[in-house]
From TrEMBL:
Gene3D superfamilies: NAD(P)-binding Rossmann-like Domain. GO terms for molecular function: oxidoreductase activity. It holds the Pfam family adh_short. CDD domains: SDR_c. InterPro entries: NAD(P)-bd_dom_sf (IPR036291), Sc_DH/Rdtase_CS (IPR020904), SDR_fam (IPR002347). This is SDR family NAD(P)-dependent oxidoreductase. Belongs to the short-chain dehydrogenases/reductases (SDR) family. The keyword Oxidoreductase applies. It comes from Aeromicrobium endophyticum.
Length: 268
């Protein structure tokens, strides 16, 4: 698909960061966008700012992206059938092997089941209409790993796996799937991780910013929209992630040994 005038989109995690950047770029192209986020106050501020520039094409609904009722509310707030759903909301909780069960549960619910519930709500209608696009923000951690955080690594791998399954199952029936996998992006999540009191959390963020250059949310949005237009499954704002992913697949033992060296260098 080519997102543009007449496109109706929903973007979760849109009060700031990558989600806000994607929403901004979609609006610049003439789309109508429903913004979702758990942070109601910040979401209202972002929505007001964007509506001031693109009046009449912005709506917002605050809530938990992992909740099926909230997904339904986002869809209901759209001015017509939803053409594009960007499942961008995510959490970066839980560090080290002793990560709390609550962090595992929240990570699974938001990073994976939020995407599953969105697909459950939208794919049947897309199959009837013969068109629709689902975007999974899965992170480079879903293709490689995330040092320091087993919760983030495991759930982002699961998000990639779900996106692959959606594409393999419905991609020839009009449902386009695009999996967005950036490394370091200049967002609140990155800044909060760098300032975390937990040394393992700080190591996790050092691994992100050391592995490659950090980019802006708008840079990520540009790469995503290009990938959607090209019909590509992966959207890689850091092209080197594709090279790393191929090397990991071709010689996993060597890749793991390289990660040992990388982790050791960060610990020092």
């Amino acid at each position: 698909m080519t997102p543009g005038a007449g496109t109706v989109a929903v973007v979760t995690g849109a009060a700031s960061g990558i989600g806000e950047g994607i929403a901004e770029r979609l609006l610049e192209r003439g789309a109508s966008v429903v913004l979702g986020d758990l942070d109601a106050d910040r979401l209202a501020e972002t929505s007001a700012r964007l509506d001031g520039v693109h009046p009449g094409r912005v709506a917002h609904v605050a809530g938990d992206a992992a909740d099926a009722e909230h997904v339904a509310a986002l869809v209901a707030a759209a001015p017509g059938d939803v053409d594009l759903y960007v499942a961008n909301a995510g959490v970066f909780k839980g560090f080290g092997l002793d990560a709390a069960d609550a962090d595992w549960s929240m990570s699974w619910d938001v990073n994976v089941m939020g995407q599953v519930r969105a697909a459950q709500a939208l794919v049947p209608g897309w199959l009837e209409r013969g068109r629709g696009c689902f975007v999974s923000t899965a992170s480079a951690a879903g293709l490689l790993t995330q040092l320091g955080s087993p919760t983030y690594s495991a759930t982002k791998h699961a998000a990639v796996g779900f996106a692959e399954w959606l594409a393999a199952t419905y991609g020839d029936q009009g449902v386009q799937v695009c999996c967005l996998c950036p490394m370091g992006v200049r967002t609140d999540m990155l800044r909060e991780g760098e300032q975390n009191a937990d040394e393992t959390a700080r190591l996790a963020m050092r691994s992100v910013v050391t592995a490659g250059a950090t980019v802006s949310p708008l840079d990520v949005a540009d790469v995503l929209l290009e990938a959607i237009e090209a019909g590509s499954f992966f959207a890689l704002p850091h092209p080197e992630v594709g090279t790393m992913y191929a090397r990991k697949a071709s010689d996993t033992d060597q890749w793991v040994a390289g990660m040992h060296r990388f982790r050791t260098s960060l610990e020092r």
